[in-house]
Amino acid sequence: MIVVPLFLILVLVAVILSSLATAILLGFGIVSCSILIGWLRRNPATAFRALFVQLGAFFGIAGGMVIAFLLRSLTAMDGGLGLQLFVGAAVGLLCGLALAFAFNLMWTSALNWAFKRINRIG
């Protein structure tokens, strides 16, 4: 029978709770920053654009680091893990921002088209 010390269980619980708290605080930070930008510009569309850019940057960095780590694990890549994760994060950031700006462009175009259509009908 394997006995897990109470200390290891408490450490695992602490890691899970701190990860959850970090995710919640990061989410509130991104949303509140977007709301502040929209409030300062007095334009709700600007808040949504800022939100999409921040989410694109965040998920781009995280995705780039995960892909870099998977590539390192699946292939025999030389070099330090830190450098590979940094390059993965940088490439992920650029890709995430490019996708966010493309989405903002499409979203703005769709809203403009819908407003023109509504004004023509009404």
Offer a concise description of the structure.
The chain is mainly alpha-helical and 122 residues long. It contains 3 helices and no strands.
Structure in words:
By secondary structure, this protein is mainly α. 89% of the residues lie in helices and 0% in strands. The chain has three helices and no strands. Helix 1 packs antiparallel against helix 2. The N and C termini lie far apart (75 Å). The mean pLDDT is 91.
Strand pairing plus helix content: what structural class? mainly alpha
Per DSSP, the total helix count is 3
Q: Would you list the SSEs in sequence order as H and E?
A: HHH
Q: Residue ranges: pLDDT <50 for 5 or more in a row?
A: none
Into which percentage range does the β-strand content fall? under 5%
The shape, in one word, is extended
Q: What is Rg?
A: 21 Å
What percent of the residues sit in helical stretches (DSSP H or I)? over 70%
Largest sheet: none
| Oligomer classification | single chain
Distance between the termini: 75 Å
Number of domains: 1
Mean pLDDT: 91
Number of strands: 0
Write the layout of secondary structure elements.
Blueprint: H1 6-41, H2 44-74, H3 81-121
From the structure above, extract its key features.
transmembrane; 3 helices; 122 residues; mainly alpha; transmembrane helix; membrane
